[in-house]
TrEMBL record:
The keyword Signal applies. InterPro entries: Thioredoxin-like_sf, Thioredoxin_CS, Thioredoxin_domain. This is AhpC/TSA family protein. It comes from the Bacteria.
């Protein structure tokens, strides 16, 4: 009888431990690929991955419109935008469109090939790269091969140019 009680107690204890195990994590998308995103620009137009030219380099920037590092990065990028001619720059946030428009006005990013918009609360881009800090930048060359990921400011434009147009840039994860 004593053995029977001990066996039941052991089974109950083991069952309790198994019941508290977290569910298995969902498989993570291949973060070396550009995610299938949809963003809405301040003027209401939609831009998707399919709208990008597959033969031009791409820079994905995840930002928050009220983040000072992001604003400085955006202003620096706008001041040197000529050095990025031929690249497609997709700037994505989760914030509402009125904040996107304010960010555009602060940074003066109204240039051809620069798309500044919001993915809303879909979190597709943010989850794809597991973004926790702003600004975040992923750089792809003209073959859309990932050449660099930058997660911590300051992010130097020279490294981004190298990844877009030349040698593999330093990966700063």
């Amino acid at each position: 009888m004593r053995l029977y009680t001990l066996l039941i107690a052991l089974l109950l204890w083991a069952g309790k431990g198994l019941a508290q195990m977290p569910p298995p994590e969902a498989p993570v998308a291949d973060s070396t690929m550009i995610p299938n995103f949809t963003i809405v620009l301040a003027d209401g137009r939609h831009v998707t991955k399919g709208d990008l030219d597959p033969h031009k380099p791409v820079m994905i920037v995840y930002y928050s419109p009220t983040c000072e590092h992001c604003q400085h990065f955006g202003q620096d990028l706008a001041a040197h935008i000529g050095e990025f001619k031929g690249a497609q720059i997709v700037m994505v946030t989760f914030r509402p469109l009125n904040e996107v428009k304010d960010f555009e006005n602060i940074c003066h990013l109204e240039h051809s090939g620069v798309y500044v918009g919001s993915e809303g609360l879909t979190w597709v881009v943010q989850h794809h790269y597991n973004i926790t800090n702003f600004p975040f930048v992923a750089v792809y060359n003209k073959d859309w091969k990932l050449k660099g990921v930058y997660r911590n400011p300051p992010i130097h434009l020279s490294l981004l140019r190298r990844g877009l147009f030349g040698k593999t840039s330093r990966n700063v994860e």
